[in-house]
Amino acid sequence: MPASRYTYLGPEGTFTEAALRTLPEAATRELVPMVSVPAALDAVRNDEAAAALVPIENSVEGGVTATLDELATGAPLMIYREVLLRIAFALLVRPGTRLADIKTVTGHPVAQPQVRKWLAAHLPDAVWESSASNADGARLVREGRYDAAFAGEFAAATYGLEPLVKDIHDAQNAQTRFVLAGRPARPSARTGSDRTSLVVWLGDDHPGALLELLQEFAARGVNLMRIESRPTGEGMGRYCFSVDCEGHITDCRVGEALMGLKRTFPKVRFLGSYPRAGAEASPAPRHGTSDSAFLEAAEWLARCSDGGVDVGRA
Description:
There is one protein chain. By secondary structure, the chain is of the alpha/beta class. Helix content is 26%, strand content 30%. The protein has helices at residues 15-20, 37-45, 65-72, 112-122, 134-142, 209-218, 252-264, 291-305; strands spanning 5-9, 30-34, 51-58, 62-63, 78-86, 89-93, 104-107, 127-130, 148-151, 162-168, 175-182, 194-201, 224-231, 239-246, 267-275. Strands 1, 2, 3, 4, 5 and 11 form a 6-stranded mixed sheet that branches. A 5-stranded mixed sheet has the order 8-7-9-6-10. Strand 7, helix 4 (112-122) and strand 8 form a beta-alpha-beta unit. Helix 6 runs antiparallel to helix 7. The longest helix has 15 residues, at 291-305. The chain is elongated and about 85 Å long.
């Protein structure tokens, strides 16, 4: 049944699968690997799965463009959870392969920037070719297409390979953020440490257009956590912006910022408000941006509209 099925970027042995298995509900779901991010998300859109876990951001390479673009287009989906996973690669090879034997290597395109320095130092002449996922790279090594693959050490047993070198990473404590996306419904409940994601289309290209977007958040004391431009495919210079901000849609400051964006820009897609992974409670809102401050201002305006007198405060 779709309600008991979660899809993820496969095949078996990907970091995405490892991230998915950290969710408690994964133990009671059928976990189905898919060949690509669009395929994983389309299974949800087509009512073949309840949710999909996909990578969205890496601390070294930045946004995962396949996920950003897929969430911005097609039938709307919403994010309900996120998972942070520390990323370290192993160099997986067929048994008996030595470092000197390696002429070709493979891995997901997002993996390459995370191991570039290691490659230059240890395999400077090896040819890199990208694969659909790190685990798919391991499969291709097993089939003899490549000499080695960068993947999680845990994938070695699945594909009958050996980790020739372990714990490879150019950046210490590199992480990838994954999101669990499902069909639109009521957002996850506010926790006090939340993230809100959305996509904003600027419409026409004019001086200050990006500033107008940023001001909707700045004027209300909403902290931006990530903003990335993505081409819309409608021609050169036509972009939308993928945005993460701190807070929940039910926070007055966030809700008003979203309303401001909707008034100002031709298209805004809300992607969800959900708990931040591995984060403590968010800092207290700046003066004048708490829910109580917004409510007090609304009450003041109502009194003024009713002819009341406001004597001010010391």
